[in-house]
Design goal:
Helix content: 10-25%
CATH superfamily of the largest domain: DD-peptidase/beta-lactamase superfamily
Number of helices: 11
Distance between the termini: 32 Å
Number of domains: 2
Shape: globular
Largest sheet: 8 strands, antiparallel
Strand order of the largest sheet: 2-1-10-9-8-7-6-5
CATH class of the largest domain: Alpha Beta
Radius of gyration: 23 Å
Strand content: 15-25%
Structural class: alpha+beta
Length: about 450
Amino acid sequence: MKPSITIPLAILLLTACARAQSDSEIRKILSERIDSYHQGVGIVVGVVDSRGRRIISYGALDQGDKRPLNGDTVFEIGSTTKVFTSLLLADMVRRGEVALSDPVAKFLPPGVKVPERGGRSITLLDLATQSSGLPGLPTNLTPKDAANPYADYSVDQLYQFLGTYQLTRDIGAQYEYSNLGVGLLGHALARRAGMDYEALVRSRICGPLEMESTQITLSPEMKARFAVGHNQDLKPVANWDLPTLAGAGALRSSVNDMLAFVAANLGYRQTPLAPAMAAMVAERRPTGTPGMEIGLAWHIFTVPDEIVWHNGGTGGYRSFMGYSAKSRVGVVVLSNAFTGAGVDDIGLHVLDSNRPLIALRKEISVNPKLFDGYVGRYQIAPNFIVAVTREGDHLFAQATGQPRFEIFALSDREFFPKAFDAQMSFETDAQGRATQLVLHQGGKDTPAKRVDAP
């Protein structure tokens, strides 16, 4: 799995009126997601509106752990951290400590070179709006432990990358989501404030909003209610550490804490951060995707009614936080499993029932002897092969240069991965040996002829 801490979200353009979901409807969604489709271990949903808060949860902290989840259960929130980083920026602008137009180089050591292009420097605004021209990840990110990919990435490595990288397009010209960019922003703001990133978040955001469960370093008490992360196969995985790029995705939090954050954005509680929160959605740039803009970190669906949101994911967790200023409803969804379905669709559906849930597929049992006829190599392009292998009663696929993933049966000849939205079908001869694989993805059907020897 690539060390990504965010998940792209499809845009659903609908025109009917929004309707928030009831608790029973939400609980049904969660139980189906976990029990029927095995796309989660535990999920907590929080809703805040004019009537107050409500928490709906289903599942457990870990497989076999009978302790129920609740609004105080702690999760990794991944890229949802970026909203906190940009709120720090907006608040520091309000205090006169920085300006959006300041070059990020201004807040780095004098000897550090930051790439420029066309006589233009990368500004704090460029970083917050994902338009700096920096890539999603630095090319010198080569983790010793793939299960914790950011843990050993150092400040010296960050500076070395910045000093050697050449931008491939003009600064501010195009939206491109960058964990590197927002991680750099958090690093620069912490240097300007004279404290580490976690201390800055705690003092400027968590203190005023009374968010006691939002931290990077967990106390023993928080560890006791920290949900265990799981991968797409629902196996426990290691937690992630981001010492250098903390502003991109290092925070851990609870639904209750994040509802306090959303409530403040909706004006349900008074806070000195209100002007900075308003500035985050007032400053906008296009993303190149119809119906979506970006503010300071927040992504904003503009039709049919405006929804402000961000999502996140680490190796074992998924998160969603969003709100509608028109209906004055906010939603937080946290899960302790990094599965293909995620929780973005749940969050949007709770905000607006007209936004559909992902159409999940349920695996069936088939005779594993069929797999022998499917094992082989299938050529999609001259240098792109899909290798199908078998281990016992499990079937796997692996494309050139990509990790192996398990595929599950929809029928005797149709299979799907749980890690992403795709499907594969096998065409066979009279003996049941596959002659061709067809990949169904993104609305396209791509044939791949078998190329191995009989």
